[in-house]
Amino acid sequence: MTAVKRDTYTPETLLTVAVRVFNERGYDGTSMEHLSKAAGISKSSIYHHVAGKEELLRRAVSRALDGLFGILDEPGAARGRAIERVEYVTRRTVEVLMAEVPYVTLLLRVRGNTKTERWALERRREFDQRVSDLLKAAAADGDLRADVDIRLATRLLFGMVNSLVEWYRPHPDDGADRDQVAETVVRLAFDGLRTSP
Amino acid sequence: MTAVKRDTYTPETLLTVAVRVFNERGYDGTSMEHLSKAAGISKSSIYHHVAGKEELLRRAVSRALDGLFGILDEPGAARGRAIERVEYVTRRTVEVLMAEVPYVTLLLRVRGNTKTERWALERRREFDQRVSDLLKAAAADGDLRADVDIRLATRLLFGMVNSLVEWYRPHPDDGADRDQVAETVVRLAFDGLRTSP
DNA sequence: GTCTATATTACGATAGAC
DNA sequence: GTCTATCGTAATATAGAC
Fold it and tell me: What's the pTM?
């Protein structure tokens, strides 16, 4: 179909193809043959660019994790009242997730069968813990409703946020689209979470 | 360790073991060898009970789908104002999910690589559509807040509900546990969704 | 950088004994 | 009902030519 001449692959450009296939078929369900067909080069050519399948996974989940941990270093996540920091981190997580949806999708589906996968799971738990601590602080400030368990609420909140990967697909030139999603998530979450005025 | 004498396997008891392993390693990441080790019998013995790996998957996702579609046939899902039916279905979905968590987990992770998987995805979409229609009806009644997109809200609501499979593990003799989770989910969801008084 | 050819291992499934 | 042994295929990865 698209007989467009492309440049030679780099690990980076190959990753784009690989992550798409990983998300379509699942990581374990994807063979090097599948990747080779999708990239339009032979299996052995792929090994010229990367050490193997697992390196592609490592690069992908690293990118997702960098995006997520980056949020915690932003001023909005470090300053101000805890409830405001929670809201900031929630909104930014939605935004990062949408910006990096193929990479975050892969991260969220990792099972723990290989060393790389276990490392990814560990780092993800670390992120969840940092967010959970923020929620606890907001609860201690009395800014979260007292009739729900904080641990449970945290899980449900981020369960809702993470579920975006199941259906969200980026459209070029549609920042308004993303803004609306982020706004709706925050609104749904916090109109239920925040202490009533 | 536990050298307890067990009865011969049936397809049903074998399924319990298989679904646990599928959820730990992922369906594609699980080999017949893995199942054989976990069940404590040889690979070929497994084939005496079931036709193969895919039959185990089919039995598992069928059980999950039966549970979910069963909800829609209950009186609470068919009678009354739409908003009340939505709330009923939401609560019951949480309950079924917790009661059948290993089976629903497997269903929610299906990718579509085989015929069985594509059939599961199709039936799941059917369920989502039925629920989505309920939400639309509630919106038409004016019982859902008008400032959020209904389609988006439906996805987020069931994204939150489905995220239970990521962490919920059943404890014997703890119905109170389940009641609290169901109550919290409904409260968080609907205090944000329902029109304010 | 990309290819064809191939080594080696793992997988799903079957044959046939007990 | 369970086993050992094995078949045929598909997987990851490498060798070596161009």
Answer: 0.96
